[in-house]
Amino acid sequence: MAAAGFTVSSASATAQATWTVAPGGPFTAHSGNTQLAVPNAVLTCSDSDAVGTLKSGSGLDGAGIGDIDNLTFTNCSVAGILFTVDTSSALPWKLNVTGVDPNNSNRVLGSISGIVAKIADPDGICTATFAGPSGPTAPGTVTGYYDNGTDQLVIQDGNLTAHNANCLGIINNGDHAAFTGNYDVSPAQNITQD
User: Fold this and answer.
1) Rounded to an integer, what distance in angstroms lies between the CA atom of residue 25 and that of residue 115?
2) pLDDT-derived band of residue 84, with 50, 70 and 90 as boundaries?
3) At residue 9, what are phi and psi to the nearest 5 degrees?
4) 144 has which bridge partners?
5) Mean pLDDT score across all residues of the chain
6) Predicted pLDDT at 32
7) Residue 7: is its pLDDT beyond 50?
8) pTM of the prediction?
9) With left for phi above 0 and alpha for psi between -120 and 50, is residue 135 left, alpha or beta?
10) Which tens digit of pLDDT belongs to each residue from 21-68?
11) Alpha-carbon separation of residue 130 from 3, 142, 163, 168 (angstroms)
């Protein structure tokens, strides 16, 4: 999951805040390691890459300030089982700015919404869909922050839930799935509260 580099000029933001993004436009993001932790296991991928776009200009609503247009994961496994991740059914995902971390003004808080992702191994031993809590087609959300000191989007958790799980008891229906990943963003973007 990925977004663009955010630099903030205000120490606080309200729900009514609008934002200025410069330069906006296309971006890429790469994480060298991502994890999706369920109660019985941790699904890991050695690489994840995203391509997206950000709105540009001022007076922008923080909700839907950008899109994830494509997201790929490579070299993924769980409990020794290799699997692929398909994110195509729900793209684009939405990038949202919700405010500034009150404990660290370098960190812009936000989320990525609209998520539905399916995993499967080549032999059909392990399959599952990760989406929102209410069902396999109800989009989920991950949360995190962008640190303008490191130019990384850090995903820490969210409300992803396992559905249609058939994975030897490793993944079960209703499992909360905590997604984590540190994405290096290029080019860095600048977002400020209006």
Assistant:
1) 21
2) very high
3) -105, -5
4) 110, 155
5) 89
6) 94
7) no
8) 0.89
9) left
10) 878 899 999 999 999 999 999 999 999 999 999 999 999 999 999 999
11) 20, 11, 6, 17
Taking residues 118-143, what's their average pLDDT? 96
Q: How far is CA 122 from the centre of its chain?
A: 25
Widest Cα–Cα separation across the chain = 52
Classified as helix, coil or strand, 36 is strand
Res 61: pLDDT:
92
Place of tokens 């909360």: 176
How many C-beta atoms lie closer than 10 Å to residue 152's C-beta? 19
Checking phi first, is residue 79 left (phi over 0); if not, alpha (psi -120 to 50) or beta?
A: left
Residue recorded with tokens 């087609």: 137
Nearest to 191 by CA among 60, 92, 93: 60
Residue 187 near residue 5, CB atoms below 8 Å: yes
> Rounded distance, CA 146 to CA 144, Å?
7
